[in-house]
Design goal:
single chain; 443 residues
């Protein structure tokens, strides 16, 4: 079955998201590279604190993905006048969620983290990081709404510019605040947290300025702020809740993964933080193409063209796999050079290279699996994606526990769980797309 959505259209939607993700990942890379020069404790604490923060903001990100699916569906149906109302209701929901998330991080994170972190030094540094990082919740959550709007209507160029600005601000402030350069105070890990918060604020401000002064937001009836429609809130919640739970559980278990690694010692934890940073770079094309397929699937169903969905999915899979393959080959050719960006410690260098090969394989599997997985979400069957995520993550958690606690193997073997996880979500998602009843799903 042929489709009017060709490789060029998929690429035009995907590449701004990929570029935006590159800029956003630079934040992670620079945080890791700078703190790698501070010491192993700071490097490990930033890993735990950063993933803990990510697990919390996934609550907002999940709502954003649900809103993106609904906006794309209305855009495909030609009901653009309804998009503004969806946008505004999402803002209200995420404002409430941001307040509760902020309170949890600031006032309850110690009680939670103290149950798992064995090193007093790592715990202290992690809490110092989160004390400031928590303020970014508000800017991140509101940013997810803007991101959902622009991706939903396939105007993704703004994602590139916004995250590029965020990366530049973060790099400059990291240089100034971590080490005390250019007359700024030397704040170490706290400086990294403050830099990230200011960068997120800058990103949100740019979104607002762009929408108000260079975009025809009135066409979509944004900021009309009519009465609250509880039926719409219910629809957003119904569609988004499985996605919220899915992303939260996924990152929560990844957070537990790092806690288990922390119990293995400071060196395996530092290695894992370095590898996490490189791994995220390999995942950049995957996130871009996954966001694109999410929107395209919902758009095509909204236009009454569900028969075109599978051909578009396979085209997207090809593009995703080829781009990730380029990154994997680069890592395979020069692993020592890549790892040396983060550390000059010989023990960390030699320990990181085998793990880098493992995550390279995982990234290739993910390049296929995550496109299928997000295609299922784009159909509106978010309960199915949650079930796929839950089943896969239970197996993932059992394997992590077995490898770190029972047989206590080396860190490279522990990271192989990523390959298993990617394979499972890809297999389950592909099976559902072939045999599931999704073509007439309403959102």
């Amino acid at each position: 079955m042929k489709t009017s959505v060709g490789y060029k259209r998929i690429w035009n939607i995907s590449y701004p998201i990929i570029l935006g993700s590159i800029a956003q990942t630079i934040i992670n890379v620079t945080d890791t590279a700078f703190l790698g020069r501070v010491g192993e404790v700071a490097l490990g604490a930033s890993a735990i604190g950063g993933i803990f923060y990510l697990a919390i903001i996934m609550l907002g990100y999940g709502i954003g993905v649900g809103v993106q699916i609904i906006i794309a569906r209305r855009y495909g149906e030609g009901k653009e006048n309804l998009i503004g109302t969806i946008f505004e209701h999402a803002l209200i929901m995420l404002a409430i969620m941001a307040i509760f998330s902020f309170i949890f991080i600031r006032f309850f994170s110690f009680n939670f983290l103290a149950l798992f972190i064995s090193s007093g030094e790592v715990l202290s540094e992690t809490l110092a990081f989160l004390n400031y990082r928590a303020w970014g919740i508000f800017f991140a959550f509101f940013g997810f709404v803007f991101r959902a709007f622009f991706i939903g209507i396939t105007k993704t160029d703004i994602i590139t510019w916004t995250t590029a600005l965020m990366a530049l601000v973060n790099i400059f402030l990291n240089y100034c605040l971590i080490f005390g350069n250019l007359g700024f105070p030397e704040l170490g890990i706290e400086g990294a947290a403050i830099a990230s918060v200011i960068a997120e604020f800058t990103s949100l401000l740019f979104f607002i300025i762009f929408l108000l002064f260079t975009f025809d937001f009135k066409h979509y009836k944004i900021f009309s702020f009519g009465i609250i429609k509880y039926e719409l809130l219910h629809r957003i919640i119904k569609l988004s809740t499985p996605i919220v739970l899915q992303y939260f559980i996924s990152f929560a278990v990844w957070f537990l993964f790092f806690l288990f690694v922390e119990n293995m010692g400071q060196v395996p934890l530092a290695i894992s933080n370095i590898i996490r940073s490189v791994y995220l770079i390999m995942m950049l094309p995957i996130w871009g193409f996954s966001s694109a397929i999410n929107t395209l699937v919902s758009y095509l169903i909204g236009q009454g063209r569900p028969e075109e969905v599978m051909p578009v999915i396979f085209k997207t899979v090809k593009l995703s796999f080829l781009m990730v393959m380029v990154l994997v080959i680069t890592c395979a050719i020069s692993p020592w050079i890549i790892i040396s960006i983060y550390t000059n410690n010989e023990e960390l260098l030699s320990g990181s290279v085998p793990v880098l090969y493992v995550v390279s394989v995982a990234a290739l599997v993910f390049s296929i699996a995550f496109v299928f997985f997000n295609a299922v979400a784009g159909t509106g069957r978010t309960k199915v994606t949650f079930a796929i995520e839950l089943g896969s993550i239970i197996i993932y958690f059992i394997l992590v526990y077995f490898l770190t606690k029972v047989i206590q193997t080396n860190i490279a073997v522990v990271w192989t769980v990523e390959i298993t996880y990617a394979f499972l979500i890809g297999l389950f998602s592909f099976y559902y797309l072939l045999h599931g009843k999704w073509k007439n799903t309403r959102v």
